[in-house]
Structures are given as C-alpha cells and as structure tokens.
Amino acid sequence: MTNKQLIKLSSPAVPDIYLQEISIDDASQTYVDWLNDPKVNQYLETRFYHQDLAAVIDFINGIMANPNEHLFTIRLAANDRHIGNIKVGGIKPVHLIGDVSLFIGEKSCWGKGYAQQAIELISRYGFESLKLRKLCAGAYKPNIGSTKAFLKAGYQKDGILKDHYLLDGKPCDLVQVGLFEESLSLLPMLN
Fold first, then answer.
1. Helices (H), 4-80
2. Element spanning 77, H or E
3. Rounded distance between C-alpha atoms, residue 162 and residue 170, angstroms
4. Pairing of strands 156-167, 134-140
5. C-alpha neighbours within 13 Å on the C-beta side of residue 99
6. What's one Pfam family the UniProt record gives for this protein (predicted)?
7. What are phi and psi of 162, to 5 degrees?
8. What is the DSSP string of 81-100?
9. I need a surface site. Which of 56, 66, 136, 175 has the fewest CB within 10 A?
10. What's the burial of 130, exposed, middle or buried (CB within 10 Å: 0-12/13-18/19+)?
11. Interval 138-150: pLDDT, tens
12. pLDDT (tens digit, 9 = 90+) per residue, 45-73?
C-alpha cells in the first residue's frame, strides 16, 4: 500500500464519480485487460503494443516521476470502483498549456456521462492547481463519444487535422478541442 497522501478531486456538482491520483496500487489485471481490449483501446495509442502488468507498473512509475504528467483514476463514488483514467500531460510550462486524455475501461460505464464529469474535474484541476491557461485534447474523428464528452464539458473545437493518423491502415482526421482558463466559470456541471 502506498503511504503517500493521494490527491482526490471531487465536487458536489459531480456526484457520480471522483478522481484519485494514480498509484502503483492501481496496477491490476483488470487495468491490463482494458488496455488489451480492442473495443476499449481502438482509439488509444496503447493498441499498438501488448500490455502486461510490468508495463503498466513502469508506465505509472514514469508518470509519478514526471512533474508535467498528472494521471488520475476515474472512480465511481458509490463503490470506489476504478473505471478508467484521465490525465493532464504534455504540459508545456513556458506556454502554460497541457493535453487532456482519458479512457473509460469499464464498458458497462460507457454512455453514462462519466467521461464528461471526469473532464470537468480534471479541467478545474488543470486551471486552479496547475495554473495552466489552456487545455487541449484530440480525438480520432470516428470517436464521436469522446468528442461529445469534451464539447459537453465546455471545450470548443479548435480545428481538424486532416488525415493525421492511420486507423485500421486508413488515414483518419484528428478533431482538436480546447478550453481556456477564463472559460472555467462556464463549465456546465461545476457551476
């Protein structure tokens, strides 16, 4: 068990989930199975590599050692169950920007608004605790659920990178979204 006091992000306005800073204790076979599940990882870069427990532990250790990466587990408030992860990473301190990425690994939790809630919580953290001025995210164009979650959480479309990635061997657009710090007061759930 980790002795470090972990950061926990929650809000009365977001009653269904909370975010907890990741620790080695979160490395589990369930987590590994999510990363290797073709339905879960179809839009994740992890899909290109088979994942195992050692790789997940190495990843978590690397994140915990990097001050520009902040990874949180997404947990159900009702039972503390870990259902996915969300991260503010790729932070560029000179520009005060960071990238938000997430996945909901527990398929029974898809389509319930948990991603939007997690995005709002991590956005508040990025602006208030990390003092960033802009958060960015990107989604493969067919990943409509992810794009909708960001837009519902107050993000705006920044643009489309045409044929930016390959998906199943075919060029695929990347939808880019962003949120500025001054828009924090406009977040749907947290106000």
1. 29-36, 38-41, 53-64
2. none
3. 12
4. unpaired
5. 10
6. Acetyltransf_3
7. -65, 130
8. -EEEEEEEEEEETTTTEEEE
9. 66
10. middle
11. 999 999 999 999 9
12. 888 899 999 999 999 999 999 999 999 99
Amino acid at 29: Q
Closest CA to 137 of 167, 152, 158, 121: 158
Q: Average pLDDT in the 110-137 region?
A: 96
Lowest-confidence segment of 14-18, 85-89, 170-174, 178-182 by average pLDDT:
14-18
Position 59, amino acid: F
Average the pLDDT over 38-48 and give the result: 91
Domains defined along the chain, listed by start: 8-182 (3.40.630.30)
Give the global pTM.
0.91
The two tokens of residue 40 are: 């879960």
Amino acid at 138: G
Rounded Cα gap, residues 7 and 147, in angstroms: 27
Q: Specify the pLDDT at position 9.
A: 78
Strands (E), the chain: 8-11, 14-21, 70-76, 82-92, 97-104, 134-140, 156-167, 170-180
- Distance between CA 52 and CA 163 in Å, rounded? 31
